[in-house]
Design brief:
Length: 92
Amino acid sequence: MKRLVFAESARRDLLDIAGFLATAAGPETAARVTLDLEERITILRHSPLLGRVGAVSTRELIIDKYVVVYVVEAERICVARIWHGKQKRPRR
C-alpha cells in the first residue's frame, strides 16, 4: 500500500472549500463535506489507478462535485489539487 500525502496546494484547496461552505451552508456542513472528502480520498491508497487519466502525469478522482487531482509516484500518492467541478481551472 502506497503512502498518501497532500501537497500544500491541496491543503489550501480544502481550506478554501471549507471557508466557502461555512459561509454558504454553515460550519457543520463545511466540516462534514471536507472530512468526507478526506476520508474518501484515502481509497487511493488501495487503488491508485482508480481515477481517470488527467493532464500530463496526473490522474483525477471524481468525488461528488469535486475533482481530486493526484500523482502516482513509486512510493506514494500525492494529492495535488481539489477543485469543485464548476470551478474554473487552469488550462491543461
